[in-house]
Amino acid sequence: MSFTAIFGGTFNPFHMGHYKMLSALENCDKISKILIMPDKIPPHKSVDFLASDEDRFNMCGLVAEDFSKAEVCDIELKRQGKSYTYDTVKLLQQEFPNENFAFVCGGDMLVYFEKWYKADELMKMLPFIVFGRGSTDKSEFSDCIKNFSEKGMQIILMDEEIPNISSTAFRNSQMSDLLPEKIYKYIKERGIYDV
Prior knowledge:
Elements: E1 3-9, H1 16-26, E2 31-38, H2 53-64, E3 70-72, H3 75-78, H4 85-95, E4 101-106, H5 107-110, H6 119-122, E5 128-133, H7 138-150, E6 155-162, H8 167-173, H9 181-190
Parallel strand pairs: 1-2, 1-4, 2-3, 4-5, 5-6
């Protein structure tokens, strides 16, 4: 069985950690399509500055050009209010009943999964493609995998560990090596984040 991977995030901006995840998804035989999905309002965090929906969508589109399986999906940008994963998955499964969806999740997010909106229902709606992350405590991460698996979450654990890079780190430092070159160029040309 092959999956359509839902790769959601604020992408504010799209950084090298995201890019490495995307590259791993591209090279995974279990995945036939990747939906890069910028969210409207992230429910789990507050941000100091959020680039426009248009700019974040465009940045995702630039990155998608590098990967044959990737395309940008604006389903969350079109909805009002907070972008809850449960609502998005439910909508996608209703609109595309023949698609086998899987949700991409970093280890840092998995640790907080029980706090997600309707987490108990969501974990049984589709498989989760999980990446470890350098900043995540290894034993805590292993405990989460075991705990959620026992509760019925189907987990596809990726071999690649994602480096500890964040969009906030770029916004604070504006170091160009934290971003794909084409994203840094786009940001500079548009004057986003005062670059």
